[in-house]
Amino acid sequence: MRRRDDDHETTGERPDWLPWLTGVLTDKGYDLSSGRSGGRAQLARDTGLSQGIVTRLMAGEAVSYETLLAVSRGAGIPIAELLIRTGKASTDDFELPGPESGHIEVSSGKRLTPEEVAEAAGVPEGDRPWFTTMVRRMRRGGTSDGSSSTGGAAAEG
Questions:
Q1: How far is residue 147's CA from residue 17's CA, in Å, rounded to a whole number?
Q2: In this structure, what DSSP letter does residue 110 have?
C-alpha cells in the first residue's frame, strides 16, 4: 500500500472527507459542535494525539498515516475506510467485503434507524421490538447488564 503522507490541501477548501469524518465521530459520541464542546479534547485523549493534531485533522488539514491510524484505533473507525476516505489509499489497496460476504454498505452517510438495521440484519419479526429497544439504549449509552428498571434481564428471556 502506498502511503500518501505528502499530500496537502492547498486550495483552502474543506476536503470531501471532512463532513463524513465529523458525522462518524459525532455518531460515536464526540460533540464536535464547537471548539469548546469538549469533543476534540475527548478525541485527543482517546487517540493519544495532541489537541493541536486533532484540531488540524478537524480543520481538514493534511495529516499523516500515523495520525489516521491513531484515530482509527482510538475512535473505532475501520482503518481501511479512513484511509480511503481521506485519500491516503485507494480501494485497490484493500480487499474490502462485498455483498457476497453478507456485509451491507451504506454510502449515503445517513444514519440507519434501529428498524432499518434490524431488517438489514435479518432479525426475525418477533424479535424486532426487543432488538430496536436494545439498539436505542446502546446509542444513548444505556446499561447493557440487565440492571435497567425498564426491562433488563426480563427482556433477555
A1: 40
A2: P
Q: Where are the alpha helices (DSSP H) in the chain?
A: 17-27, 39-47, 51-58, 65-75, 79-85, 114-121, 128-139
Structural contact between residues 53 and 67, judged by C-beta atoms closer than 8 angstroms = yes
Q: Which amino acid is at 143?
A: T
pLDDT, tens digit, 9 for 90 and up, residues 144-156: 454 444 444 444 4
Give phi and psi for 103, each to the nearest 5. -85, 145
Q: What is the pLDDT of residues 130-143, one digit of tens each?
A: 888 888 888 777 55
Q: What is the pTM of this model?
A: 0.54
Provide the pLDDT confidence category of residue 98 given band limits of 50, 70 and 90.
low
In sequence order, which residues have a C-beta less than 8 Å from that of residue 30 and are 6 or more positions away?
Answer: 39, 40, 42, 43, 75
Look-up of cell digits 469548546 = 36
63 exposure class (CB count in 10 Å sphere: 0-12, 13-18, 19+): buried
